[in-house]
Design goal:
By secondary structure, the chain is of the alpha+beta class. It contains twelve helices and 14 strands. Helices cover 33% and strands 18% of the residues. The strands form four sheets. It has a seven-stranded antiparallel beta sheet, with no helix packed on it. Strands 6-5-7 form a three-stranded antiparallel beta sheet. It has a two-stranded antiparallel ribbon with strand order 1-2.
């Protein structure tokens, strides 16, 4: 770093110091709500690292020796009260403590921490490695379009309905195409499995592949959409991750939930308690309950989440649960407090970047919630855009797949 940027000072920040700072000022992070905590940690490392660097300089031992020489002021510092006094060196203010004159630096820190502006980008990639499930499937289960033969070079073994084959083909990447008769053209996603990816090297190879799949007059709109690519579907952001045998595209959530700090702090407690509940049930041990977790607070958070799902961007979620939550409020009140903790954690996870399946049956909702699967046929979609971010998230381009038009 110093070789690239002469004159740069490298300041080392300990994770423990940042963790203590979070606890002291009630800014605990929740990995369940969203991934903003990564950006917040980076910011707090700058704040805390600068405080320690200004206080102790780059040579803490030299600082202690100098302090020890001062009459009556030996070791005039206390790490547990680090932020209770102003920290200034050579006119540079690293920290202004809270006093009667004002809230000090912590006000600016909290205002920054409450911003919902971090840009999240994910690595897009083409799947490599295992081509399919190595356990072969019998002829009674095998279907021609979704299975590959046991022996590729043996013509007799090509019919999977007679000899069985391999299933669970792993997707390498996706394409977006237009096909059909002239007046009834359809636009849809199609998957290119790893098994076939190496065979498709040119556009002609791709067209031949599509013709073999039964598409009439295919035209390729986008020839390579990688896994984890960001898709804006009818105003909602999703990551594309797979396609099932029925041509349904599988997505994962890409729209981060934003909550006020007081709710994030409460979710942190619920996360911890939920893990304790599951561990207690597994090991059949007594559960030590956190008295700060109450039915009243649970209901308040439940209503906040319901409001988010009904009246924010989450109402555009392809599998919106807003109405289910609103209709299920009375049923939620009747649940015991442990069940309330579990169901709230599931609801929060639903809009996080973590994938998982849970049930809303206790609220009168569906038995299985979590998987986001949409028909690959986008002909009737109001919006379907491929969004490409640079690694840093500073630059963005969009391609309207329905109009075959680039933007940005």
């Amino acid at each position: 770093m110093k070789a690239m940027l002469p004159g740069t000072d490298i300041v080392y920040a300990k994770a423990r110091n940042v963790s203590d700072f979070r606890k002291e000022y009630k800014m605990l992070k929740s990995r369940l709500v969203n991934d903003y905590h990564h950006a917040q940690d980076a910011y707090l490392n700058i704040v805390v690292g600068n405080v320690y660097f200004t206080k102790f300089t780059r040579n803490p031992m030299n600082f202690i020796k100098k302090e020890a020489r001062r009459d009556g002021r030996n070791y005039d510092y206390n790490l547990y009260k680090m932020y209770s006094k102003d920290i200034i060196r050579n006119g540079e203010k690293a920290w202004i403590a809270t006093s009667e004159q004002g809230p000090g630096t912590i006000r600016l820190v909290k205002e920054t921490m409450e911003k919902n502006t971090p840009i999240i980008t994910r690595q897009t990639f083409e799947q490599r490695g295992e081509l399919f499930n190595l356990q072969p499937v019998g002829k009674y289960s095998a279907k021609k379009d979704n299975y590959v033969p046991l022996k590729i070079n043996d013509e007799k073994m090509q019919d999977v309905s007679k000899y069985g084959g391999y299933t669970s083909l792993n997707p390498s990447y996706f394409i977006f195409i237009e096909h059909g008769l002239e007046k009834k053209r359809k636009k849809c996603f199609e998957v290119i499995h790893s098994y076939y990816a190496a065979q498709i090297k040119t556009e002609k190879d791709l067209i031949d592949f599509l013709l073999q799949k039964g598409y009439k007059n295919p035209r390729v709109i986008n020839a390579r959409i990688k896994k984890n690519a960001l898709i804006k579907y009818n105003g909602y952001f999703l990551y594309i991750i797979g396609m099932d045998a029925r041509k349904n595209i599988e997505f994962s959530n890409a729209t981060a939930m934003c909550l006020k700090n007081k709710y994030i702090q409460y979710v942190c407690k619920l996360e911890k308690m939920n893990k304790a509940i599951l561990l207690s049930e597994k090991q059949k041990t007594n559960l030590h309950w956190d008295e700060k977790i109450t039915c009243k607070s649970n209901l308040e958070l439940y209503r906040e989440l319901t409001e988010k799902h009904l009246h924010s961007i989450y109402q555009r979620h392809p599998r919106s649960i807003g109405k289910c939550l609103a209709d299920g409020e009375e049923a939620f009140k009747l649940l015991d407090i442990e069940e309330q903790v579990k169901i709230i954690c599931d609801i929060v996870q639903y809009t996080s970047f973590q994938r998982g399946v849970f049930s809303l049956k206790v609220l009168g909702g569906p038995k299985e919630v979590g998987r986001i699967r949409i028909s690959g046929n986008m002909t009737e979609a109001k919006e379907c855009k491929l969004v490409n971010y640079s690694i840093t998230g500073m630059y963005k381009t969009e391609m309207d797949l329905l109009k075959n038009k680039k933007e940005g």
